[in-house]
Amino acid sequence: MVNTAAVGRVGSPFVIDLERGKIREFAQATQSANPEYWEGETPSVPATFLTTQMFWQEWAGPDANPWHQVELDQQRGMHAEQDFVFFGPPPRAGDRLFATSRIERIYEKAGALGGTLTLAEMITEFRDEQGRLVAEASLTGVETDRNPARASR
């Protein structure tokens, strides 16, 4: 059962140092042929590169990621959506980002096979060394009130 008291919880800040090699590894893993990720000493990050935030949060310690406070049941839960908004050019290799995640909202809506769906949204803000908002990531997880596989029988 999702913990609605998690709304508003904020994780401790964590730092992401953008490295050229990691940007290229990500581009290779996603099979991107975009030369922007391969050429020069300071390639920009692919739009979805910021999903790697989870590794940086893990390395920063358990307080950096407030998602565990949502208590989404992994037997009936799944990743539902991921969005990214950039407030200017994408960050580049050599940039240092300061990130903070917060549980934005938890809400319900009717589902088909799984009954009521409970959705939880986490927002992560990425700021540059001057404190300017560079990007924002929105992650949505969903939990069904019953097992959809059993509901369809």
Task: Briefly summarize what is shown.
This protein is α+β, with helices and mostly antiparallel strands and 153 residues long.
Would you kindly provide a written description of the structure presented here, covering whatever features stand out?
This protein has 153 residues and is an alpha+beta fold. It has a single domain, classed as Thiol Ester Dehydrase, Chain A (Roll). The chain contains three helices and five strands. A five-stranded antiparallel sheet has the order 1-3-4-5-2, covered by helices on one side. The longest helix is centred in the first third of the chain and has 10 residues, at 20-29. The mean pLDDT is 90.
Cα end-to-end separation: 23 Å
- Looking at the overall shape, the CATH architecture is Roll
Largest sheet: 5 strands, antiparallel
Helix and strand run: EHHEEEEH
User: What class do helices, strands and sheet pairing give?
Assistant: alpha+beta
As for the CATH topology, it is: Thiol Ester Dehydrase, Chain A
Number of helices: 3
Estimate percent helicity: 10-25%
Number of domains: 1
Q: Tell me, rounded to a whole number, the average pLDDT.
A: 90
How large a portion of the residues is in β-strands, by DSSP E? 25-35%
Compute the CA-based radius of gyration. Answer: 17 Å
Low-confidence parts lasting 5 or more residues at pLDDT below 50? none
CATH secondary-structure class: Alpha Beta
Number of strands: 5
Strand order of the largest sheet: 1-3-4-5-2
CATH homologous superfamily grouping: Hotdog Thioesterase
From the spread of the alpha carbons, the general shape counts as globular
Protein name: MaoC family dehydratase N-terminal domain-containing protein
Organism: Antrihabitans stalagmiti
Pfam families: FAS1_DH_region
